[in-house]
Design brief:
The complex is a heterodimer. By secondary structure, chain A is an alpha+beta fold. Chain A has 2 domains: 67 residues, VC0802-like (2-Layer Sandwich); 71 residues, VC0802-like, CATH 3.30.2130. In chain A, 34% of the residues lie in helices and 40% in strands. Chain A is globular and about 40 Å long. Chain B is 31% helix and 24% strand. By secondary structure, chain B is of the alpha/beta class. In chain B, strand 7 and strand 8 form a beta hairpin. Chain B folds into 2 domains: 323 residues, Rossmann fold, CATH 3.40.50; 96 residues, GMP Synthetase, Chain A, domain 3. The longest helix of chain B has 19 residues. In chain B, helix 7 packs across helix 8. Classes of the chains: A alpha+beta, B alpha/beta. At the A-B interface, strand 1, strand 3 and strand 4 of A face helix 12 and strand 20 of B.
């Protein structure tokens, strides 16, 4: 139902992002998708990668401020309107999406998101037969 | 025709006369201290009696006193007179523990006013001047201190207090104010409002003198203020432990502040060895009061760093000239007139479990104001922005409650602040006020 995501707290200063990317490169970790949200002072760099647990440990070793959290990953057809349909079921259930990013993988769209009510979101996913992806899929992606 | 001095005999004494008077008054002060338990104990520990003071150099045999002594004897433990003889009390805010209390007899207040009157006279103010005191009143000694001094000189004195700039400007124009006392940052503020209101201080006011103090400021800042207002700005030194303002003030030469040596013995010592440093070298300012009745202070460590510039002056006063303050021998910061210790900030930050132990305080100046930025490391990274923003807001709020001004709070990742060998560097002062 959910997959592990790494959240890295970085300062808005040159050199901070490359420190993270270098550590992942050294550990031979593949980044599958990533996004940065920023404020004036700092950003949260969120990423989905191969071997998230190992990536987490390697980043900690490199003194990177990293947190592991679970996010939803939904697979949709790569066609206009599919994202709208997927998101609509959550909004109709009164669930807010806190953040969302997406990427294409082998001809399929993948939506990564977090909601303000995880449990309710799970039942919505099940009831609407949305195709969610779990951790085992990550190794295949990479 | 007025004299150039408020008290010609005392102000124009030769060095020999000053030192003879100091010795006489020091002997009297030390004897007077024997009325107080705290001092009797201190003298016993140091193995001295009042009879041991035979020359002025013997002042160095006396024990030092500190702010800590004032805290430990709070509130009245360092008084040398019966309480019925005390007529005024001033107290510090006590943000880092017990406040400090300074008691005054009627004579103490009169001597205090006298010092302020000398200062204002020295920079050309006379009884026909109008003095507006735009300084906080109440416990802050810059209010009543200048009020009584200006009245003693004989000026029409306007207790305008701080703030309400529009009203201040109206007073300046309507009352024909010729002199203002304020903290330097407030003068700048006043000028900004004058500009907005289309008031030109040169054209529309009778201002001729500014007295600025209570806030560290650089020579550049003073020049900027003088250029803005079109008048001379004179640096004033005071501290509540020594009454308040009055202790030292610049003469028209603007080459150091004259400290009134008939009122104080001025020593500059190495803050580590506590040995005297030669004239011209920077050390900690140590003051001994020579005329105080209620609370004489012997060798009080001010924690201010400065140096002796000279002991003569073209103005005709041989009272020692002391440079503007160069810094502190402790870690106290003075920001917008508020005294702040890093430990106060640390105390608050450490109450947040979300935060790690490392923090850095940076002081900067923009065009008008001194600002404080507190960077602190986040112990646990998070995926939640709202949580970070709430945390920042809460830190800001709690810091404001503690230090009375709102700092900029920056959360930074764990391990991103510089780690120093040994004693951590907690404060970076970029204000250049001590240049």
């Amino acid at each position: 139902m959910t997959i592990p995501q790494l959240s890295i707290f970085i300062e808005n200063r040159s050199g901070t992002l490359i420190k993270v990317l270098d550590a992942l490169k050294e550990a031979n970790i593949q980044i599958i998708a990533s996004t940065i949200a920023d404020t004036a002072e700092y950003g949260i760099y969120r990423l989905i990668c191969s071997e998230p647990m190992r990536a987490y440990e390697e980043l900690k070793k490199a003194n990177v401020a990293v947190a592991l959290s679970d996010v939803f990953a939904i697979e949709i057809d790569d066609k206009p309107g599919r994202a709208a349909e997927a998101v609509k079921v959550f909004s109709e259930a009164g669930i807010s999406i806190t953040y969302l990013y997406s990427f294409l993988l082998r001809g399929k769209g993948i939506l990564i998101f977090r909601t303000d009510d995880g449990e309710k979101a799970i039942s919505v996913i099940n009831a609407n037969h949305l195709k969610s992806i779990d951790e085992s899929a990550l190794t295949q992606w990479a | 025709m007025y004299s150039q001095f408020f008290e010609p005999e005392l102000e124009s004494m030769s060095r020999e006369q000053i030192e003879a008077l100091q010795l006489e008054r020091l002997k009297k002060t030390v004897r007077h201290c024997m009325n107080n338990e705290f001092y009797r104990k201190k003298f016993a520990e140091a193995g001295i009696t009042p009879d041991d003071i035979k020359s002025l150099a013997d002042v160095r045999r006396l024990p030092f006193t500190t702010k800590q002594d004032l805290r430990e004897t709070y509130p009245f433990g360092m008084s040398c007179v019966p309480m019925k003889d005390c007529v005024r009390l001033h107290s510090s805010s006590g943000t880092t523990g017990n406040p400090t209390v300074i008691l005054h007899t009627k004579k103490d207040l009169d001597e205090w006013a006298n010092q302020v009157a000398r200062n204002l006279w020295m920079v050309g103010l006379r009884p026909d001047d109008v003095f507006q005191n735009s300084s906080g009143y109440g416990m802050f000694t810059g209010g009543l201190g200048f009020q009584y001094g200006a009245e003693k000189l004989g000026m029409l004195t306007v207790p305008a207090a701080a703030g309400n700039s529009l009203r201040q400007i109206k007073f300046i124009k309507d009352f024909g104010t010729t002199a203002i006392h304020a903290v330097p940052s407030y003068v700048t503020r006043l000028y900004e409002v004058m500009k907005e209101e289309g008031v030109d201080p040169r054209r529309d006011t009778k201002l001729k003198v500014l007295a600025i103090g209570a806030e560290p400021h650089s020579e550049e800042q003073r020049k900027r203020i003088e250029d803005m207002m079109g008048v001379k700005a004179y640096n004033s030194f005071g501290m509540s432990e020594m009454c308040g303002p009055g202790v030292g003030f610049e003469c028209p030469e603007q080459n150091g502040m004259h400290f009134w040596e008939d009122y104080y013995i001025v020593e500059i010592v190495d803050p580590d060895t506590l040995e005297p440093v030669p004239d011209g070298e920077i050390g900690e300012l140590v003051l001994t009061t020579l005329c105080r009745e209620a609370m004489p202070l012997l060798r009080y460590r001010t924690r201010d760093l400065t140096r002796v510039l000279g002991r003569s002056c073209p103005c005709g006063r041989n009272h020692v000239r002391i440079d503007r303050m160069k810094g502190r021998s402790d870690d106290m910061m003075v920001l917008r007139g508020v005294n702040i210790f890093p430990i106060q900030i640390e105390k608050i930050l450490m109450q947040f479990s979300e935060l790690a132990n490392n923090y850095l305080i940076t002081l900067t100046t923009d065009e008008e104001n001194d600002n404080m930025t507190v960077e602190v490391e986040l112990a646990q990274p998070t995926d939640d922005y709202k949580q970070l923003q709430t945390l920042e807001k809460e830190i800001r709020r709690r810091l404001k409650d503690e230090i009375l001004l709102t700092p900029i709070v920056k959360l930074v990742p764990l391990g991103s602040l510089p780690v120093s060998e040994g004693k951590a560097v907690r404060v970076i002062d970029k204000r250049k006020v001590y240049s």
